[in-house]
Amino acid sequence: MKRMAIFASGTGSNFQAIVDAVQKGSLQATIALLICDKPEAPVVEKAKRANIPVFTFKPKEFASKAVFESLICKQLQDAKVDFIVLAGYMRLIGPTLLQAYPNKIINLHPSLLPAFPGKEAIKQAFQAGVKITGITIHYVDEGMDTGPIIAQEAVAIHDDDTLFDVERKIHQVEHIFYPQTLQKLCLTEYEEEFT
Ligand code: GAR
User: Fold this and answer.
1) Residues lining ligand 1, Cβ inside 6 A
2) pLDDT in tens, 151-172
3) What is the pTM for the complete model shown?
């Protein structure tokens, strides 16, 4: 089975959805490691409850991104990680990780890219007044939410929706669609790419 590392910075609801899918058997992969840049984030507790090894670090304690990403690479190699899944990891991936895991880093973004990249994408879409937004799953490149798109799912914004309503709908779709898409990748192209 392919071994993934999940990178996350916050609540970890998508992390939990992936853990649940693995436990149910609908996602056939092993979660080898959680990497978290915020030691106090709730996702850390979720990983501990699921008995998933955790590596936390504080970026400010390192001289540069290259230095902390080298340390992450060592953790990933020790855990024999095949691919990386970003689930609310709120940092740009740097050249060190991109070169170590080419085409093996996947991101979830809460908008229909290329619309609304960057932070607070759900709020950006809501404030822009669009009637359709959604989620995007894509390979990570050196840009901000710019890599090749793997899958997208639309979410309607109704006239009486609050920002909270839209956030709830987006998260519901993410929790179903991200594990499903990861499973498809594990079954198809990842089998080929990783062999
Ligand atoms: C998710 O909505 C994810 O799409 C978003 O962060 C949230 C994490 O929630 N990611 C980005 O905005 C990346 N640019 P979670 O911690 O509950 O999974």
Assistant:
1) 8, 10-15, 87-88, 108-110, 121, 145, 174
2) 999 999 999 999 999 999 999 9
3) 0.95
